[in-house]
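User: For a benchmark we're assembling, each entry needs the component sequences followed by a predicted structure for the full assembly. Here are entry 17's components. Please fill in the structure.
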Amino acid sequence: MRRVYFDHSATTPVRPEVAEEMQKFLTDNFGNPTSLHYFGRQTRKALEEAREKVAALIGAKPEEIIFNSGGTESDNMAIHGVAMLNKNRGNHIITSAIEHHAVLNTFKALGKQGFTVTILPVDKYGMVSLDDLANAITDKTTLISIMHASNEVGTIQPIKEMAALAKEKNIFFHTDAIQSMGKIPVNVDDLGVDLLSISGHKIYGPKGVGALYVRKGTRWRQSLFHGGAQERLRRAGTENVPGIIALGRACELAVEELGAEPTRLAGLRDKLIKSVLDNIAYTRLTGHPTKRLPNHASFCFEFIEGESMLLSLDMKGIAASSGSACTSGSLEPSHVLLAMGIPHELAHGSIRITLGRDNSEEDIDYFMEVMPPIVERLRAMSPLDQENEFVMESSCAACKASTSCHR
Ligand SMILES: *Cc1c(COP(=O)(O)O)cnc(C)c1O
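Assistant: Structure for entry 17:
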């Protein structure tokens, strides 16, 4: 069967060039980078080269890069580290309603530990307002964390303007750039951020490895773990050498990709969005129409459950997603779509298509061949359909009237 992978925001395959490099550090170059002998020196050197490559992708200095176990740890490390060390200065921290759970749940945990947490709303495009941010800041605010680009709806936030506002008030600024890295230019000086999260498996590297950028001079409590002196006392534990080497290589390749690939992906994305909106009725785009990731398309199909669409697509060999990988599997609609004011019953019908290096125009054509009949069949079966056009404009009143929505 034809297989089309349309879920690059959930994870990406490891590029062959990356796997090849990684392989050497599993077998031949296996030394512990802390060891002083030949084997240790060999991996230490490779580790520092990888650090330079990661730093180069985001315009940082190598010593500002701390390797760890991935995006989740980076978000935890950044937020926890800044909030805790600056507690004597203030206990107010700010984030947005559309963050990844690695950020949102860290804020919630800190909320239970005596911090005052502000969660900023977003508009219908998933955009945080600069005015809302400015109004939320108090003299007790020590940290703002806003993601660069949304994994769920692809919206790109005005990080540069927000970070400038934070700097003016001496507040540390963290951004989760896991989805934007390698897809649009990400430069820490241009953005003006103090901390930035990176994950390997979203940029054609392996899972379980990532990095946190921390600007020199940032007041930040170091390692979350108690242990050895690795990463200059900032992250204890023997380094994941094969993973780090792979992350370095993936970043190096990502620099090259930033030339033509985003334009190619944006072409495919625009073709997909236009085809879906032109050919499938009662469908809307979610996220910002223009300020969005070049590989990201997301929709709500009315009168259908996202999960039924996913399963039908999967039977045709197409791998897509409904909301984030963390929320699919549960029947709650995505917190991101709800925060954007999308009604429950519509949020249930969400589909996310995220393109990558392996996708071509033929994949879009294949999707447009199989998707309309799937939608037609599911709508014919759907009890939501009986609500007809009324549902389109309604909010949760219609949702409550429909028996199939709240399960
Ligand atoms: C995937 C992802 C994470 C989590 O990264 P892991 O490496 O999977 O822990 C965090 N934030 C965003 C925006 C992501 O897309």
